[in-house]
Design goal:
alpha/beta; Rossmann fold; 2 domains; 9-stranded mixed beta sheet; two-stranded antiparallel sheet; 15 strands; glycoprotein; protease; Peptidase_S10; transmembrane
Length: 436
């Protein structure tokens, strides 16, 4: 947004820039100030006003006919202040979306804040974690009795960038390593915690599935930044739920687990174990992208030999799951982010019965209309698979040493796991915990 100085008389330019300035909080809006113009002729004043009107009309026309991508940081929220959301430009042309819910039980400035990071990578915390898991409202926009908002403020962030409502103006700007993901998150947190009121709130970082890796890594980076005085906030702890911390330990657990619960015959379990050992050797050799591709092949083998076991509940067949018959499932090589996203978003309970639900339409409809700041050319979840592909080289890397360093710095880490999860199986979690 550039002010058209050529429309304004020279002797009014200085004052004009004071009269109409672009709001720092919302760069695509014009903020007004008072009592600036004095001692000028009516003709000059009329010329000035005409210039301003031309500018405003041009701006409105621009916003109406083009795909608007606001530069810088944008913030909005509900009139009562119970919710805030916005974009932080964590890098040039890289926009991270966040949504902060203030707990109605907030007792004071030291009330905790939970930062929720979804998995995938490429799944949206703003969508899935919020409306499907722990947020105040479900996808029917009804209050959720078990919301974590009863105990803390909730801060959902669509990370890595290009996930959910976050976006990049050029696909080459999508993060390609976990380290880049962490740098973006730390940039966001530094901006978010410039609010002095929030600086006194203890921050808990929660990561689910693949989100556990960036949760542990940003926790470590934040711990160091706090010690260096680069950011003012209290890190209260890191929570890792069914987290993809040690991929090799997880794939090595699949064969024995599925054999023990009678999902695989002995010969098939041996084949699964053989592929898992191949993945371990590829990781040890630094062949991380090849390990990711072999991991995808391994899931395919398990699919075909286990009567399509449900990767998120090994007690079920995925053929008995609404997900299995979804026509939009991509091929196995790019299946995991979509499999994870669709698994969580396809499960809705109504009258005790599971029904299919399209979270994408919900987010791009009623939620988008509420937020009002999403650029017109950005669709929720459109770039999610690109996120997974970009991080393919880091997908199979371990973060056990990161958790270890967190603990050595005296930070609190909580690890919890679902008993029937196959991808991040409890056996695999126990294996990597023993390495700490």
């Amino acid at each position: 947004c550039i002010f058209p100085l050529h429309y304004i008389p020279n002797d009014l330019k200085k004052e004009a820039l004071s009269v109409y300035t672009l709001s720092k909080k919302s760069p695509c809006k014009v903020a007004s100030q008072k009592k600036i113009i004095r001692n000028h002729s009516e003709q000059d004043f009329a010329m000035f006003l005409s210039g301003v009107l031309v500018f405003l009309l041009g701006l409105l026309l621009f916003m109406g006919i083009s795909s608007v991508q606001c530069k810088g940081n944008v913030r909005s929220g509900t009139p009562d202040g119970s919710e805030e959301w916005g974009y932080v430009e964590v890098r040039p042309k890289v926009h991270m979306f966040w949504w902060h819910y203030i707990s109605p039980q907030r007792a004071g400035v030291d009330w905790p804040i939970i930062l929720w990071l979804q998995g995938g990578p490429g799944a949206s915390g703003v969508g899935i974690g919020n409306f499907q898991e722990v947020g105040p409202l479900d996808t029917q926009l009804q209050p959720r009795n078990t919301t974590w908002l009863q105990k803390a403020d909730l801060l959902f962030v669509d990370s890595p960038v290009a996930t959910g409502f976050s976006y990049v103006e050029n696909e080459t700007l999508i993060a390609k390593t976990d380290a880049e993901v962490v740098v973006d998150l730390l940039s966001f947190l530094k901006e978010f915690f410039k609010n002095s009121t929030l600086q006194k709130s203890p921050l808990f970082i929660v990561g689910e599935s693949y989100g556990g890796k960036p949760a542990s890594m940003v926790g470590l980076a934040l711990s160091k930044a706090i010690a260096a005085g680069d950011i003012k906030v209290t890190l209260a702890g890191v929570l890792l739920g069914d987290s993809w911390i040690s991929p090799v330990d997880f794939v090595l657990s699949w064969g024995p687990l599925l054999k023990d619960v009678s999902r695989l015959e002995l010969v098939d379990a041996r084949k699964v174990n053989s592929i898992a050992l191949k993945i371990r050797e590829q990781v040890r050799s630094g062949e991380y992208l090849q390990a990711t591709n072999t991991w995808a092949d391994l899931e395919g083998v398990i699919d075909s030999t286990s009567n399509r076991v449900d990767f998120y509940n090994f007690l079920l067949d995925s053929s008995a799951d609404p997900l299995a018959s979804t026509a939009t499932l991509p091929k196995r090589t790019s299946r995991t982010p979509q499999r994870y996203i669709q698994y969580l978003t396809s499960k809705q309970i109504k009258g005790g019965t599971e029904i299919s639900f399209d979270l994408s339409s919900f987010m791009n409809g009623v939620v988008r209309n509420k937020l009002k700041i999403i650029p017109s050319n950005i669709k929720w979840g459109e770039q999610s698979n690109d996120v997974f592909q970009a991080l393919g080289n880091d997908f199979m890397k371990s973060a056990v040493d990161v958790v270890d360093e967190l603990l050595s710095r005296g930070e609190k880490v909580t690890i919890y796991n679902g008993q029937v999860d196959l991808i991040c199986a409890t056996i695999g979690t126990e294996a990597w915990v023993q390495q700490l």
